[in-house]
Amino acid sequence: MHADANGTGSPPEAADDFAGVPDAFQRLWTPHRMVYIDDEDRTGERSGCPFCRAPGLDDATGLIVARGVHAYVLLNLYPYNSGHLLVCPYRHVASYDEATAEEAAEIASLTQSAMRVLRETSRCDGFNIGMNQGAVAGAGIAGHLHQHIVPRWAQDANFFPIVARTKAVPRLLGEVRDELAAAWPTAE
Predict the structure, then answer these.
(1) Is 84 in the same domain as 118?
(2) Is it the case that residue 37 has pLDDT exceeding 70?
(3) What does the H/E/C string look like for the chain?
(4) Is residue 188 part of a domain?
(5) Among this protein's residues, is 2 annotated catalytic?
(6) CB 118 within 8 A of CB 180
(7) Set 70, 84, 144, 146: catalytic member
């Protein structure tokens, strides 16, 4: 289903309805993702970068779970699953190869800690971990390096929001942040 001009749902369009050479694919429109395409934060400008702003906020307001020396961990404001975390360097760099050795090492260490904490608190069965490098690769905020850590369960809804325009996130972000921060190891 996708939203038409009136905001109502309509079925996916058949490939045969498009100009050009028909193929076997159905098209699934996801207009809710336009917030990432149209958002000024995608330009990489520091003034609009939420990953540059977050460390200046208190942890609860910034959804920050843990702070390191070179990088920090926060909850994704638009999670795929409950507990979807991001690991970001404090420094505004766009690409993994621009990170210093210290930043890369701390991103790795924080990612390992995040996995342990998520297993302990949410009893997840696995993870999707990755970085989308550049807008063309799907980075919602291409100007500031960030790694996704998405907890997964055997029976989760995966990308249900794309299909039914509904997010099944069972807990409030603040509640999840508080739980993860309390379970975070004190020494990295």
Answers:
(1) yes
(2) no
(3) CEECCCCCEECCECHHHCCCCCCCCCECCCHHHHHHHHCHHHHCCHHHCHHHHHHHCCHHHHCEEEECCCEEEEECCCCCCCCCEEEEECCCCCCHHHCCHHHHHHHHHHHHHHHHHHHHHHCCCEEEEECCCCHHHCCCCCCCCCEEEEEECCCCCCCHHHHHCCCCCCCCHHHHHHHHHHHCCCCC
(4) no
(5) no
(6) yes
(7) 146
Same domain, 107 and 16: no
Same domain, 66 and 3: no
pLDDT tens column, 141-162: 889 999 999 999 887 765 555 5
Tell me which residue range forms the domain holding 3. Answer: 1-38
Mean pLDDT of the chain: 80
32 and 45 share one domain: no
Confidence band for 11, pLDDT divided at 50, 70 and 90: low
Per the structure, the count of domains in the chain is 2
The answer to whether residue 57 sits within a structural domain is yes
Task: Output phi, psi for 129, to 5 deg.
Answer: -125, 130
24 close to 15: Cβ distance less than 8 angstroms: yes
Residues 98 and 65 in one domain: yes
* 109 and 81 in a common domain: yes
- Looking at the fold, whether 21 and 111 belong to one and the same domain comes out as no
- Binding site residues for substrate, as ranges? 76, 148
Per-residue confidence (pLDDT) for residue 127, from 0 to 100: 95
Tell me the sheet residues that pair with 147: 87
